[in-house]
Design a protein that fits this description.
3-stranded antiparallel sheet; 14% strand; aminoacyl-trna synthetase; globular; two-stranded parallel sheet; single chain; Rossmann-like_a/b/a_fold; protein biosynthesis; ATP binding; alpha+beta; 32% helix; glutamate-tRNA ligase activity
Length: 199
């Protein structure tokens, strides 16, 4: 593994989503067999859920979030409509009145979305170059109360002092959202390869 000339190498494991028993241990063993290592134990995202929720509470107090009652199917249907931006949340719940929110809350627990004030953001990826991607009102807390990946990864990178990130290139479309959230929170954005994989 290429290690930084100064500083440390860290690892974080996303275990806040559907994780099969033993998957984290197998992943770490696979990385070790490939000669990849890091300084200290990997950070489990689930170990910081209280901190993640506290940040959402601060954003909510500042008027930067709103409750969303849409199902994934409803969001996908709206995004695939002729006028919808592919993959974008259309803002269905953004401006609901109090009575409508109360009615929907009785039917379904809400997710919490960031109230974004931009539509896109450009990030520079070491391998992909400049990439301009969608920034919509993305989910911060899922409707089961657990932190969403984009929130957790931004906060955990900042917590670990991460300044360079290598992630799978399948996550490149999420990187503009993460960069935007970091800017909203006044956090430094990791540099150079926010989501690239070696060619």
């Amino acid at each position: 593994m290429l290690r930084p000339p100064r500083g440390t190498s860290t690892s974080a494991t996303s275990d806040i989503d559907r994780v099969r028993p033993g998957a984290v241990e197998r992943q770490l063993a696979d990385l070790a067999r490939l000669g990849l290592d890091w300084d200290g134990p990997p950070l489990l995202q689930s170990s910081r859920e209280a901190e993640h929720r506290a940040v959402v509470e601060r954003l909510t107090a500042a008027g930067r979030t709103y409750e969303c009652y849409c199902t994934r199917r409803e969001v996908q249907a709206a995004a695939s409509a002729p006028h919808g931006a592919p993959g974008a949340y259309p803002g269905t719940c953004r401006d609901l009145g109090d009575a409508e929110r109360a009615r929907r809350r009785r039917e379904r627990p809400p997710a919490v979305r960031l109230r974004a004030d931009v539509r896109s953001r450009t990030v520079v990826d070491r391998w992909a170059g400049a990439f301009t991607g969608l920034v919509d009102d993305f989910v911060l807390l899922r409707n089961d109360g657990r932190p969403a990946y984009n929130l957790a990864v931004v906060l955990d990178d900042a917590h670990q002092g991460v300044d360079q990130v290598v992630r799978g290139d399948d996550l490149l479309p999420s990187t503009p959202r993460q960069a935007y959230l970091a800017s909203v929170l006044g956090l430094d954005e990791p540099d150079a390869s926010p989501s690239g994989t070696a060619p």
